[in-house]
Structure to design on (365 residues):
């Protein structure tokens, strides 16, 4: 199947040969394949042996893996792309202990295999049936470990822990057509390396790079109220978030992209989002399509705040044991954390910082 994940395909191949997948992979390739994330990392020698065994070409097998986009040159290295897109996999022995794959019960009912795009953190809905995906067994709450199902079971669509039939799960409420079209465009972009959706028509790498900057800004400013107020979730990697948080996050992001860049500009005018919210690890490496909007519409403007505003902010920060700094005052007063001010007002802030002790460095609403 062209949209099947490599892990699912090897699992099916092993079961057809009446052999547990971890034993099968060791006997046929010489590698304990299931102690790693097969969809992202498999030895080249193992792929060649699987190609000979199954009579599939190397290109057909590579299509079952998640693309990893190499830079050409003396030293080949992965981009951050596959690390950010793919759901995080934590493996102990042969068991996945994190929510490493998702599934659509209707898809499993139609064809009993696991799709490659169910591994993508930014895809939380099924574009075929327009319903939300599941990321774990709702009965026992465990991740889906289909490769651990006993070979005597005829179905691969059951929970290996409680044996719940996954195809019997109810479909979620239908999702909006905009979300469905974005999910399909994103899946196509991974496979074809080109993203076409709405006003976007570009290579997938710069689009996905920019997408993660937008997700960063949404999580920082717009998503905090939805994300249960959890500071850890606010800064955690996208691929480690639960499916509910990722679905809500992508809904907001898609709304911004659907009317690009008008919605983003309006959010900036209303003070909900700022240019500095799009910084990641202090490296300004936006792709051009995002850079243009940052520089033409979200660039920092000049606004001279009054002494009264600064003094009131200093009083509030000191009373709550926050560090008195330009960034904290800008955040408190609703400005950019790196807003401009003259030397006199900077001196006022610096003098206050020397006087007032603090326990907390960064102030955030």
């Amino acid at each position: 199947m062209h949209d099947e994940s490599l892990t699912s395909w090897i699992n099916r191949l092993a079961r057809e040969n009446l052999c547990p997948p971890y034993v099968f992979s060791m006997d046929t390739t010489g590698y304990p394949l299931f102690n790693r994330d097969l969809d992202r990392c498999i030895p080249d020698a193992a792929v060649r042996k699987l190609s000979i065994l199954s009579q599939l070409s190397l290109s057909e097998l590579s299509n079952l893996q998640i693309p990893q986009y190499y830079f050409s040159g003396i030293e080949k290295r992965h981009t951050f792309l596959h690390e950010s897109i793919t759901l995080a996999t934590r493996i102990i022995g042969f068991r996945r202990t994190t929510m490493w794959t998702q599934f659509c019960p209707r898809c499993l009912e139609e064809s009993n295999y696991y799709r490659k795009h169910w591994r993508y953190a930014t895809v939380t809905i099924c574009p075929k049936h327009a319903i939300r995906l599941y990321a774990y067994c709702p009965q026992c709450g465990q991740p889906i470990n289909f490769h651990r199902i006993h070979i005597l079971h005829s179905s691969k669509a059951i929970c290996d822990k409680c044996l719940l039939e996954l195809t019997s799960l109810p479909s979620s409420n239908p999702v909006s057509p905009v979300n469905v079209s974005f999910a399909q465009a994103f899946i196509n972009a991974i496979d074809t390396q080109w993203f076409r959706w709405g006003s976007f028509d570009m290579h997938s790498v710069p689009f996905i790079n920019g997408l993660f900057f937008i997700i960063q800004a949404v999580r920082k400013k717009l998503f905090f109220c939805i994300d249960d107020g959890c500071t850890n979730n606010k800064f955690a990697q996208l691929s480690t978030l639960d499916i509910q948080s990722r679905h809500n996050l992508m809904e907001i992001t898609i709304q911004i992209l659907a009317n690009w860049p008008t919605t983003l500009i309006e959010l900036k005018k209303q003070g909900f989002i700022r240019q500095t919210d799009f910084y990641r690890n202090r490296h300004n490496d936006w792709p051009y399509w995002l850079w243009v909007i940052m520089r033409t519409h979200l660039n920092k403007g000049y606004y001279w705040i009054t002494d009264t505003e600064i003094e009131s902010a200093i009083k509030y920060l000191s009373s709550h044991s926050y560090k008195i700094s330009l960034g904290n005052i800008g955040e408190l007063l609703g400005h950019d954390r790196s807003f401009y001010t003259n030397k006199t007002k900077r001196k006022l802030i610096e003098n206050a910082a020397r006087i007032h002790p603090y326990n907390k460095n960064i102030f955030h609403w």
Observations:
- The first strand starts at residue 91 and ends at 92.
- Residues 204-222 form the longest helix (19 residues).
